[in-house]
Write a structure and sequence with these properties.
Chain A has 515 residues and is an alpha/beta fold. In chain A, 34% of the residues lie in helices and 10% in strands.
Chain lengths: 515, 483
């Protein structure tokens, strides 16, 4: 290890990684990992039943392996992943918290996992009961008045929220054209506004990285439908003048949409519905502990004020006088469906299990610990790294690479991306690199509440050593990671000549041009 | 709180090191009037055992989730057999799927933006993309979409970008909820949607009824049409004539999008190779029906449309040592780079569910997928014969996979109420979406998990004593298939 580090890493070490081919390369004809149940009805002549529609290509490269080989293949692949279960993800804006295992256990209970979305309501009371209690909890947490659980992820939640705004204003004969989005926003915000047919008006942040009220006041006119705002902002700071922002918008008939990506800073401490937000989404896979799974599934419920309720997607849930629950899809003003059925139900089960495990005291303590952890990191690393915005942090802190990238001796420095890669060598995932865009060379760190002081101290130690390396041996940082199974991957050639699927060598030799 | 790894003393020490005395001072940027000074009004903190009890009560169909109520009134409303499909299909899920996807390294990892420590997820996604290409007959596939409904809508938006045209012609035989999602997502994009009907029973076109009306399709597609969207097998279970629809689309410079809601059909139904874009719902490949989600959409297409593909893509490359590795690629299409000019606003997708699909496809493989599909076909044929001999009549005569529309003497609501008394969930009533089919049309599905005993029981219950037909006997007598 001595040649690979300036100091001694406290967390990382080297370990054995096994080689593993692509599954197709491990396949050999005639192997099986399945056995179908004995057929208890007469077999059929498929070609007689299907005629021309019968498939005859033999399913090409689909693999053939035994069960143990499949288990080993995917288990070996799994060991190449970093994961929350292995250590901290200091990924700002991603809220990579612990994913409780009881959530997985209850989501797999047969009566829930096997429930068909079209089964009669008399058989769906348990499933609807989960959706109702989760809805009630989320309304209380957000201080809002109506909710849909249907959106499949945060970005779809944004879309749903914008469609609600649009339907509401059009119903009043007040169709509008523009959405105001701060330059610090997530990329999904402008992409969403565009899909809803809106023009995007960019609002430049002020010198504190916050909404510039005077500029906002100038921008808001009768064409502005809404503002999409992340609060706390992507630099982890609460918009203290949020009520004034809401007032400016409301005075001109525009609405305030809140991107709930950073809700982990607020749960149990303040409620968006109380501070003027009209509509917002939540990310169950961030704030409410459903697993990220290597990139999904997510779930993006949208909560709103009563003025928007009649526009919510169908179906909604209604309590009947006899105490039973019913789905309602006869809602003439609804924006329609944004997804088939009711949303990512399996994530509702997990999120509700998380809320129950916490209760009101646990959720508040969770938020306090998330904020405590971010401020601890900030206190320990301020000065080691540049802190471009000094406003008090909530759940995340954004440093910049200015001190490391612009060396006093004029030598080439190291950048945020290099230091993020180097953090991998110390046994961590990288922090969020180069976001938000308002901070050049951003290093965005969100520890979440799930980290012990010991793990935080390891991260702080690692980042301090990396700062020292940047000074004493920048090449070591620029070429990181050094201890991973793979070295830096060539992303440029991957994009220039995309190879997006495996082809058998035999097929390749027949048609080499396609590669 | 058991998920929080800190003692009260540690919290206090950390506050001291930060230089504040109370946690409250870290929240002072929140204006006082908006600080919540009371407890949230949500259920109290539960022990793990209490959580399990509560969800067991929900799973036993109690809306209250009250474990004591469950103890007093067990087994409130369950079914012994269900013949529902309609876009959510119950197939056997090999045990290794849940065992593998619950490995923390898969379950709790982030989107693979740092490829050096995410090769497991990336390689599995590359395998997923390869298998989806193979099954659909397309050249490239993305790493997943939310589900089949949003995937179909995104495919239409993609076709508009590719062709530079605005307008889609959509078959009425596409899943009604998919069409509703499409309407929602295209409403503000200036994309007119034209619906084309299907060939009605008794039209004189033998083995064509239940299919998209190709003459009407030909008439509906104009030089302004970006794409045709059809589903095959369609919502009635009928297999569409993809080649004929493709010919119409291509003759007029439009693209053909084929949506597939029942992925298991691909084991035996010809791949829609004439299509330009295929939007697949892969739920059938190892994903629980789970009250409607999470599922696994995916878009596959011809390689020339690559730059307009929404969603994440995994590509092969090499590392500094020249080793093969995988990365997320072509992200200049995506929202975090292109912002309002992106191909879609999608960010999080369905990675873990796509992994379930990949494992399922590996378990069944080349031979198993065929055998599995054959069993589904056989079960549906038996179901059709059994219900037929009990007085039900299949409405459409075009070839189908494992679903079909049945017409019964009784209205669907009465029939299903009678079946439900015996804990059988009968076919899905179609009148809500297809009033022209009347109140007695139901959509029935059989999969490899449907047993002969369940089918015989349903047929016996379907039969209305005193009606003009004979009671059901051994239905296979009337059945002509070879054993």
């Amino acid at each position: 290890m001595s040649d690979r580090f300036v100091g001694t890493p406290k967390k990382a070490t080297t370990h054995v990684n096994q080689k593993e081919n692509l599954i197709f390369e491990n396949s050999s004809p005639g192997k099986k990992a399945y056995r179908l149940a004995q057929l208890d009805v007469p077999a059929v002549d498929a070609s007689a039943l299907l005629g021309d529609a019968l498939r005859s290509d033999g399913l090409g490269v689909m693999p053939e392996l035994s069960e143990i080989e499949i288990i080993r293949h995917f288990t070996r692949l799994s060991t190449w992943n970093y994961a929350i279960d292995l250590g901290m993800y200091p990924l700002g804006s991603c809220t990579m918290k612990y994913n409780p295992r009881i959530n997985e256990a209850v989501a797999r209970l047969e009566g829930l996992a096997e429930a068909h979305p079209y089964q009669p309501e008399s058989l769906s009371q348990g499933a609807l009961g989960i959706m109702k209690l989760l809805s009630d909890c989320l309304l209380e947490i957000t201080g809002m008045e109506a909710i849909t659980l249907q959106p499949a992820a945060g970005a779809q939640g944004e879309l749903t929220g914008m469609l609600l705004v649009r339907a509401y204003q059009e119903s009043r004969g007040d169709a509008r054209k523009k959405i105001i989005i701060p330059d610090s926003a997530h990329g999904t915000n402008p992409a969403t506004a565009a899909i809803c047919g809106y023009q995007v008006a960019n609002l430049k942040s002020n010198s504190l990285g916050m909404v510039d009220l005077a500029e906002l006041e100038r921008m808001v006119d009768q064409d502005v439908a809404a503002m999409m705002l992340t609060n706390p902002s992507t630099i982890g700071v609460f918009e203290s003048e949020i009520h004034k922002i809401a007032d400016i918008l409301h005075a001109k008939g525009a609405l305030l949409y809140m991107d709930g990506a950073n809700m982990n800073a607020l749960v149990g401490k303040t409620r968006p519905g109380d501070f003027g937000v009209d509509v917002m989404h939540l990310n169950l896979h961030k704030t409410f502990s459903t697993p990220h799974g290597g990139g999904g599934p997510g779930s993006g419920p949208v909560a709103c004020k009563q003025i928007l309720e009649s526009f919510l997607p169908v179906p909604t849930i209604r309590s009947l006088p006899d105490g039973s629950l019913s789905l309602v899809d006869n809602r003439p003003q609804s924006i329609g469906r944004v997804r088939a059925w009711y949303g990512n139900f399996g994530m509702f089960v997990r999120a509700l299990a998380y809320i129950l495990a916490n209760g009101p005291d646990g959720l508040r303590q969770t938020t306090e610990d998330a904020v405590l952890n971010a401020n601890y990191i900030r206190a320990k690393l301020e000065g080691v790294f540049d802190l471009p915005y000094k406003s008090p942090s909530l759940h995340e802190v954004v440093f910049s690479d200015r001190l490391q990238s612009q060396r006093k001796d004029g030598q080439p420095g190291v950048k945020t991306g290099d230091m993020g890669k180097r953090l991998i060598d110390y046994g961590f995932h990288a922090y969020t690199v180069s976001f938000p865009l308002v901070v050049p060379g951003a290093m965005m760190i969100e520890p979440t509440e799930s980290e012990s002081r010991e793990e935080l101290d390891l991260l702080i130690d690692a980042l301090r050593q990396i700062a020292r390396e940047a000074e004493e041996n920048p090449e070591l940082v620029r070429t990181a990671p050094h201890t991973t199974r793979m070295q830096r991957l060539d992303e440029t050639s991957a994009a220039r000549k995309p190879v997006l699927r495996w082809k058998s060598p035999a097929a390749e030799s027949l048609n080499p041009v396609t590669r | 709180m058991r998920y929080l790894p800190k003692s009260a003393a540690e919290r206090q020490e950390m506050l001291t090191e930060i230089g504040v005395s109370t946690i409250g001072s870290l929240f002072e940027t929140i204006p006082a009037e908006y600080r919540l000074e009371r407890d949230l009004r949500i259920p109290r903190q539960h022990a793990e055992s209490e959580i399990l009890d509560r969800f067991r009560a929900y799973a036993a169909n109690l809306a209250s989730g009250d474990a004591e109520e469950l103890a007093a009134r067990p087994a409130g409303g369950r079914s012994v057999a269900s013949f529902l499909g309609a876009g959510a299909y119950r197939h056997y899920r090999p045990a290794i799927i849940d065992s593998l996807v619950q490995r923390g390294e898969f379950l709790t990892s982030y989107t693979p933006y740092q490829p050096e420590i995410a090769q497991g997820t990336l390689q599995a996604m590359f395998e997923f993309q390869t298998m989806i290409c193979e099954l659909t007959g397309m050249e490239i596939a993305n790493a997943s979409m939310y589900d089949g409904s949003t995937g179909a809508a995104e495919s239409v938006l993609m076709a508009c970008r590719v062709t530079g045209r605005q307008g889609a012609v959509v078959a009425r035989t596409v899943h009604p909820e998919y069409r509703e999602v499409l309407a929602t997502l295209t409403r503000h994009q200036g994309i007119p949607i034209t619906e084309v009907g299907y060939i009605a029973p008794g039209s004189g076109q033998s083995r064509q009824d239940g299919r998209l009306d190709l003459d009407a399709l030909d008439a509906a597609v104009t030089s302004e049409t970006a794409c045709i969207l059809l589903q095959s097998p369609n919502f009635f279970g009928v297999i569409e004539d993809v080649a004929a629809a493709a010919e119409i689309a291509h003759r007029k410079g439009a693209l053909l999008i084929v949506s597939i809601a029942e992925a298991v059909s691909l084991g035996i139904v010809r791949a829609p190779v004439e299509a330009d874009i295929v939007s697949l719902e892969a739920q059938s490949f190892g994903v629980p029906v789970g009250y409607g989600g999470p599922y696994c959409g995916v878009i596959a297409c011809k390689e020339k449309f690559l730059r307009q593909m929404p969603g994440r893509l995994v590509g092969e490359t090499t590392d500094g040592n020249g080793w093969r590795g995988f990365v997320l690629t072509l992200s200049t299409r995506e929202q975090h780079i292109r912002r309002e000019k992106a191909t879609s606003n999608i960010c999080t997708n369905q990675a873990l569910v796509a992994l379930m699909v990949t494992i399922f496809l590996t378990v069944y493989g080349k031979q198993g997928l065929r055998e599995l599909a054959e069993q589904n076909l056989a079960k549906a044929a038996y179901l059709e014969a059994a219900l037929g001999s009990a007085g039900g009549q299949r409405i459409f005569s075009a070839p189908h996979f494992h679903e079909f529309v049945l017409s019964t003497r009784e209205p669907a609501a009465e029939m299903n109420a009678r079946l439900l008394e015996q804990q059988i969930v009968g076919g899905l009533a179609l009148e809500k979406w297809y009033p022209e089919l009347g109140a007695s049309a139901t959509l029935w599905c059989a999969t490899e998990l449907t047993t002969r005993a369940q089918i015989d029981l349903a047929a016996a219950l379907l039969y209305v004593p005193g009606s003009s037909i004979a009671p059901p006997s051994e239905p296979q007598q009337a059945f002509t298939g070879a054993r």
